[in-house]
Please model this.
Amino acid sequence: MKSRSSCLNIKTSGLWATGTTASSSGQVFLVEHIRTGKRFVSKKIPIRVLGESEQRGALQEANLLKNLKHVHIVEYIESFIENNTLVIIMEYCSGLLIRR
Model:
């Protein structure tokens, strides 16, 4: 896991959603690669406010996503820590709905 700025030169283009995951709380943003214009999803988890167990869970989430490869799972791009925040970059699935 990187502990510096992303290799992707990204900018936040707007708040996409806010919510809680099974392992940690965080916000999800729609971001755009500055050079290519390609869109991604950025999940930001403020690890400084989490307990030790929750911090481990957040890092495990990033590692789990990194190792999952399947056509029905959103693709992991990268993760890094910036300003005490775990940032997980994933593919953006435009126009798709999640059904329950």
About this structure: The beta strands are 10-20, 25-33, 39-46, 76-82, 85-91.
